[in-house]
């Protein structure tokens, strides 16, 4: 059962509120103790910023148009756009009329959670599945991110700040979103783990779009022409996403609003080494429209309509504009949930170990990688979820009848393959669900690559703001084209912990029947009630 499809820019958790943080890389050349060569580990870095943002770095290069330079490092022109809607089809100005009401985050540092929940809800309104009479709760989302059952974020859930990375990890674990009408702040404060609500909708995918403003590094400096082309690509993608999905979450520097034009414009920063850097972002908001002719302090016209979380007294009834050329604009991101919020989900069971989402990406590291799960009851495995690099190719398979619980030793019973355009989390369904017995161990194996280079995503190590744990026998990596090594045995590049691979299922349906037996006199009577598996 093989299914091949193209994932249309289905991404998540890849780049959240990047603010010019340089990727932390460890390049390894030559053989190591496991026979691996030319391996590169890129670890997400996080820095606590202002106004409720924890800035994330470490994967910027995987989002930029790699085609701008060839192998000889020669500039070869604009990369082909990965368009959501053809730019020729977009109007010069647009305003989404189906949006949520303006909210006020007050003194909390929850701008990231307000932006994430707004983006989710507006998308549902755009496709007609939801209305604007309610929204999703940023307070529940923040609490969920910091209080998951196993791996979780550990800073103050009201005042400690956050980012899309944290929001997505909670929602991917189905720890929200929930309707704000059921969890308002401060009425619902303090929340407790036992008082958490059941998700009203499940996060299915998200779009992580091109970073509008690249930052120079010691080994990479961008020309003005390159910056212009990257910005044009990013602006087109953001417009397309707003037009198709309703809204885009972004981060930017919230200081310096021009009251005359009710708009923002920040220039590039230049450090002591002459490197041109993105201006640090301090706040998260939602973009719901654009106008190519809107004049700001920037040299050229053109701005996005910005929906803030500072109440209706801010700007124009809660809205402002931000220039296409603003050097702080970063982390354009779209969340896409199920088409309804009535609690009816496509899948009701999830197999996963990655409570905090991905923290380290390994490229050129062996072959496939896998998670091994054990079913607690009879299940129908219908889909899997995993992270992908930009311009990626994947093949995912489900194995049964494992020998000693090791991937690669069982029988492949379902496969799916395809491509992705941008980096992040994607969900892929098998052509037919796979029935798994109660107590059965099975493996989900992912082979993913970009440009012929294998890519794998793991939780990474614990830090000052997150706790991560893993056990042996859960995650594995194929190191020589056939044999799988437990991820807990791979330590050269730091702790990998669990692979970021999920499986989605529905319990096999049961029929509650009443059956009868003949009495001694030959008459039939009800005997007892029992559950019979179909």
Overview of the molecule:
This protein folds into 2 domains: 46-54 and 85-337, Cathepsin B, Chain A (Alpha-Beta Complex); 358-510, Sandwich (Jelly Rolls). It starts with a strand and ends with a strand. The strands form 7 sheets. Strands 1, 2, 3, 18, 19, 21, 22, 24, 25, 27 and 28 form an 11-stranded mixed beta sheet that branches. Strands 6, 8, 9, 10, 13, 14, 15 and 16 form an 8-stranded mixed beta sheet that branches. It contains 4 helices and 31 strands. Residues 2-38, 61-83, 512-519 and 522-534 have low confidence and may be disordered. With 534 residues, the chain is mainly beta. This is Cysteine protease. Keywords: Hydrolase, Protease. One of its GO terms (molecular function) is cysteine-type peptidase activity.
CATH top level class name of the largest domain: Alpha Beta
Quickly count the domains.
2
Q: What is the strand content?
A: 25-35%
Mean pLDDT across all residues, rounded?
79
CATH architecture of the largest domain: Alpha-Beta Complex
Uncertain stretches of 5 or more adjacent residues: 2-38, 61-83, 512-519, 522-534
Helix and strand composition category: mainly beta
Portion of residues within helices:
10-25%
Q: Radius of gyration in whole Å, from Cα?
A: 24 Å
Shape from CA axes?
globular
- Please name the fourth-level CATH homologous superfamily of the largest domain: Cysteine proteinases
């Amino acid at each position: 059962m093989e299914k091949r499809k193209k994932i249309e820019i289905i991404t998540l958790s890849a780049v959240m509120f990047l603010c010019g943080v340089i990727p932390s890389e460890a390049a390894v050349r030559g053989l190591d103790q496991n026979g691996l060569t030319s391996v590169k580990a890129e670890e997400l870095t996080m820095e606590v910023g202002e106004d409720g943002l924890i800035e994330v770095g470490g994967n910027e290069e995987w989002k930029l148009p790699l085609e701008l330079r060839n192998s000889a490092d020669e500039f070869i022109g604009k990369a082909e756009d990965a368009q959501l809607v053809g730019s020729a089809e977009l109007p010069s100005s647009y305003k989404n009329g189906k949006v949520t009401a303006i909210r006020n985050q007050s003194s909390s540092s929850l701008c990231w959670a307000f932006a994430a929940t707004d983006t989710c809800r507006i998308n549902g309104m755009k496709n007609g599945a939801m209305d604007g009479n309610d929204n999703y709760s940023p307070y529940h989302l923040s609490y969920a991110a910091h209080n998951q059952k196993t791996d979780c974020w550990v800073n103050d859930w009201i005042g400690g700040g956050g980012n899309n990375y944290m929001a997505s990890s909670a929602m991917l674990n189905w720890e929200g979103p929930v309707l704000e009408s059921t969890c308002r702040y401060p009425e619902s404060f303090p929340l407790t783990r036992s008082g958490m609500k059941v998700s009203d909708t499940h996060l299915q995918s998200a779009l992580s779009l091109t970073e509008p403003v690249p930052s120079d590094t010691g080994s990479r400096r961008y020309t003005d022409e390159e910056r212009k082309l990257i910005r044009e690509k990013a602006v087109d993608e953001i417009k397309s996403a707003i037009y198709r999905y309703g809204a885009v979450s972004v981060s930017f520097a919230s200081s310096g609003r021009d009251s005359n034009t009710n708009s923002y414009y920040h220039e590039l920063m230049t450090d002591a080494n002459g490197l041109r850097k993105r201006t640090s972002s301090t706040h998260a908001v939602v973009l719901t429209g654009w106008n190519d002719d809107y004049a700001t302090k920037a040299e050229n016209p053109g701005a996005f309509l910005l929906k803030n979380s500072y109440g209706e007294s801010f700007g124009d009834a809660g809205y402002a504009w931000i220039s296409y050329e603003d050097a702080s604009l970063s982390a354009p991101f779209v969340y896409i949930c199920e088409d309804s919020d009535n609690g009816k989900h496509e899948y009701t069971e999830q197999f996963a170990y990655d409570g905090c989402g991905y923290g380290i990406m390994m490229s050129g590291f062996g072959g496939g990688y896998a998670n091994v799960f054990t079913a607690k009851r009879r299940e129908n495995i219908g889909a899997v979820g995993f992270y992908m690099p930009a311009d990626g190719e994947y093949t995912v398979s489900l194995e049964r009848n494992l020998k000693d619980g090791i991937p690669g030793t069982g029988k492949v019973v379902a496969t799916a393959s395809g491509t992705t355009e941008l980096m992040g989390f994607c969900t892929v369904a098998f052509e037919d669900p796979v029935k798994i017995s109660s107590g059965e161990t099975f493996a989900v194996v992912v082979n993913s690559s970009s440009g012929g280079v294998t890519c794998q995503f793991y939780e990474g190590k614990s830090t000052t703001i997150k706790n991560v744990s893993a056990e042996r026998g859960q995650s594995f990596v194929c190191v020589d084209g056939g044999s799988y090594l437990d991820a807990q045995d791979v330590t050269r590049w730091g702790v990998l912990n669990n692979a970021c691979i999920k499986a989605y299922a529905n319990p096999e349906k049961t029929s509650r029947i009443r059956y009868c037996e003949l009495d001694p006199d030959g008459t039939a009577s009800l005997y007892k009630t029992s559950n019979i598996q179909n």
